[in-house]
Every structure is written in C-alpha cells, then in structure tokens.
Amino acid sequence: MKKKKILTLFFVLQIIIVNLLSLFPNFVEKHYSNGLYPYIAATSRSIFGIFNFSVGDVIYGIVIILLLRWFWRKRKTWRRQWKINLLTIGSALSVFYFLFYFLWAVNYHRVPLNEKMGIEKKYTPEELIAFTKRLISKTNALHLQITHNDSIKVTNPYSVDEIYALAPNGYDSIAAQFPYFEFKRESLKSSLISTPLSYMGFGGYLNPFTNEAQVNYNLPLYNLPTTTCHEMSHQLGYASESEANFIGYMTSITNDDVYFQYSGYSFALKYCLRNIKDIDEATMENLLPLINKGILLNYEESDQFRDKYESFIETIFKYFYDNYLKLNHQKDGLKTYSKFVGLLVNYYADKDL
Predict the structure, then answer these.
(1) Cα separation of 246 and 249, whole Å?
(2) Do 244 and 103 form a contact (C-beta atoms < 8 A)?
(3) Domain co-membership, 158 together with 188
(4) Count of domains for the chain
(5) How far apart are CA 140 and CA 290, in angstroms?
(6) Nearest by Cα to 268 from 220, 338, 216
(7) Other CB atoms within 10 A of residue 89 CB
(8) Any transmembrane segments, and where (predicted)?
(9) Nearest residue to 204 via CA among 182, 181, 184, 232
(10) Closest Cα partner for 147 from 259, 255, 234, 63?
(11) Interior CA angle at 308 toward 307 and 314, to 5°?
(12) 108, CA 20 to 30 Å: which among 34, 40, 98, 163?
C-alpha cells in the first residue's frame, strides 16, 4: 500500500518535471537527445533488432490482456476497495509514464529542427505555389524515368523486407552533410497489428519501449519507402511529426534508389497540393493538369486504400492522437504532419530539388 502511494505521488512529480523540461530545450538537446538517449536507443535496437518480428507489439498484446484480466477480477471490488484500486492504477501509470519519457518521449522537448538547421517555417502562398511547380516537374521526370509512360502508375518492384533493407541508404547519404542524421543499428519491423493500424488511419509508429520502427505493411508499396524513413527518424529522437515528415522526405530523395526518390517527391507533392487547396482550391485544381496522370493514379491508389479501411475506429483514434500530440507540445495536433511543407519551401528556396 505504501509503495503504491509513493509511486502515485511520483507520477504527479514526473508530470511536473516533464513540463519543466519543456522550458529548457537546449538542456534537453544536449543532455538527453544527444547525451543519454543515443545510448538508450542503441541498446534497445541492439537487443530487440535481432528478432525478425515485432517484440513491441507482442508486449502490447500481453499488457492489454493483463489489464483486461485485472479489471475483470476487480469488477466487484470497487465499492469497498476503490482507494486501493485507484492507487494500483496510479502506480501502474507512474511506471508507464516513467518508461515512456525516459526511454524516448523527452525528445518532444528538444530544440526544434528548423532552429537546428536554420530554416524558417513561414511562407507565402506565392512561395508555396512556385515550390509546388518545381516539385511537379521533378516528380514528373522521375515518374517518366520509371514508367516511360506518363499515364501509367508507378509499381514498386520491391518486397516490404527489401524496402526495409534499402531505407538506411538515404540516411547514409544525408549524414555526410548533417551528422546528426547518422543512423546505426536498424530495427525495422512490419507491425503485427498492421490491419488494425489501417483501420486507425496510421502508416506506422515507433514503439518507445523497444525502439522498433513499426510499419504498416498494408500501405501501397509506392508510398512505403518514405513512411519507413519517417518512422526511422523517430528512432533518431525526432518526435515532432512535421520534422519526421521532413527527414523522411530528405532521406528518401537522397537514396540511390529511384523508387525511394519517387516515393519522397510524390509524398511531398501531395502535401503541398493539400496545403494549396486549404488556401485556394481553384489554384490547386489548376495545377492538377500539370501532373502526370500516372502520379495521380498513385494518389488514387492511396485514396482507395484509405476508403477500404475507413471506419469510426479511425475517427476515435485520431481524436485521441490529436490530443496526445497537443499534450506533448505539438499545438497543431494532427495538422502538425502538414507543417513540414514550411520546412520544404524554405529549405529548398535556393537549392535544387
């Protein structure tokens, strides 16, 4: 009983400490993200990376079963033992919270990537449109290089495992310019719950307790390379979804493989078109005829995938995830994903795509 009280009080203390850490991003960047965390991540990936299945998913399954079993056994005890039961829950949450933040989530409070790279995030509609036109030209060229026909969609010839094997190449390329993107000890896994993830509307996730990058293998293969690179960036400690999108794009287009490059460019183009649509839908419609029909067929493939798994489950999980992101200082919630467009527009303003 005393131990549970201490752990529950420690839970409250942890929340205070984490919120205080958010006020000192430079401290977090130096002592956690570039200090303690790389050792934690390397150890986790070395241990769990040797398994060819998702250990994290198995752990989640066991924990869920144990939780359901506990609630079932305690269902008739709440009137007379409610204090003990609440302390049990509080102590369990305290352990979970500690492991979650200690093993990974303190990275939410590190120095933002745009500050680290000296990139502005704001842009004008004119800058976005000009950048999108450049992106259309590049994506069209890559599409034709692969298909030799502007009306045929790209079909990725690789298996899921082959995509995982190729993904680190982009990190090797970009690390020469940005050493903090250096990636070692791969631990890429197809999630055992890929079908539930599809219904939730997620392309993957990082397991913070095992540092495994979990990828939804049901995704259209043309898009899978960039999704894989996105999840790998979380393993490096970049918790922000906009930053993970930006790194996923950069490591895709710098990969030697043309299918990775196409995945990255088509991914970025789709986000840019969405952002233009939010500003002026007519302008977005005017840009569509400039895009190869085959690229639009790939986008249609993604839309069909989304429609296939569309359900109320996605609405529920995205509501919770939206609020989870906001609680972790990503004030735009799910809209954070699209914020990486600002990084793209400004970073490539004076650079070749």
Answers:
(1) 5
(2) no
(3) yes
(4) 2
(5) 9
(6) 338
(7) 17
(8) 7-27, 47-72, 84-104
(9) 232
(10) 259
(11) 70
(12) 163
The Cα 173–Cα 66 span in angstroms is: 44
The whole domain housing 38 covers 2-109
What does each of the 353 residues of the chain score in pLDDT, given as a tens digit? 788 888 889 999 999 999 999 999 999 999 999 999 999 999 999 999 999 999 999 999 999 999 999 999 988 888 888 888 898 999 999 999 999 999 999 999 999 999 999 998 889 999 999 999 999 999 999 999 999 999 999 999 999 999 999 999 999 999 989 999 999 888 999 999 999 999 999 999 999 999 999 999 999 999 999 999 999 999 999 999 999 999 999 999 999 999 999 999 999 999 999 999 999 999 999 999 999 999 999 999 999 999 999 888 778 877 877 777 777 767 776 666 678 899 999 999 888 88
Sheet strand arrangement including 188-190: 188-190, 212-215, 204-207
Nearest to 132 by CA among 274, 338, 302: 274
Q: Is 154 found in the same domain as 99?
A: no
Element (H, E) at 204: strand 204-207
Residue 56 placed within a domain = yes
24 & 144 share domain: no
For residue 206, give the H/E element and its range.
Answer: strand 204-207
- Final residue belonging to a domain, choices 50, 84, 109: 109
DSSP for 247-285, please give it.
Answer: HHHHHHHTSSSHHHHHHHHHHHHHHHHHHHHHH-HHHHH
Contacts of 101 (CB under 8 A, 6+ apart): 14, 18
Last residue of a domain, one of 109, 128, 143: 109
- Measured CA to CA, the distance from residue 272 to residue 129 in angstroms comes to 8
Q: Is residue 352 part of a domain?
A: no
Between the alpha carbon of residue 6 and those of residues 12, 19, 87, 97, the distances in Å are 10, 20, 9, 14
